[in-house]
Amino acid sequence: MIKIHIYRDQEKNIMQYSVEGHANAAEYGSDIVCASISILTQTTMLALYELLSIDIAYEIEDGWLYCKLPDNLSNDIREKANLILDTMIIGIKGTQGMYQEYIEFYDEEV
């Protein structure tokens, strides 16, 4: 089971997210559910860093990904980051809709 946690501030901005576990929907290396979530969450992290030059804090290990944005983003960068992060959420929800038995999704305010 893949567990995805989205953490938002009081203004509903995503401040951090984490992904834990494996879907186990198919053999290792052939699991399209794991691959889909990995691509969505890692590409989001790369876009935040490479396109917006956000100095994100992150960890990546087997079955674990964590990404945290700094608190002091300008309004312009925050708006652009929200578009990238919202796109990730759309992709995650679409994947979860097709493979709900393999993905738990939590979206909460901290």
UniProtKB/TrEMBL annotation:
InterPro entries in the record: Peptidase_Prp, Peptidase_Prp_sf
UniProt xrefs under SUPFAM superfamilies: TM1457-like
Family matches, as Pfam families: Peptidase_Prp
GO molecular function annotations of the record: cysteine-type peptidase activity
Keywords: Hydrolase, Protease, Ribosome biogenesis, Thiol protease
Superkingdom of origin organism: Bacteria
GO biological process: proteolysis; ribosome biogenesis
Family note: Belongs to the Prp family.
The protein's name in its UniProt record: Ribosomal processing cysteine protease Prp
Organism of origin: Crassaminicella thermophila
Classification lineage: Bacteria, Bacillati, Bacillota, Clostridia, Eubacteriales
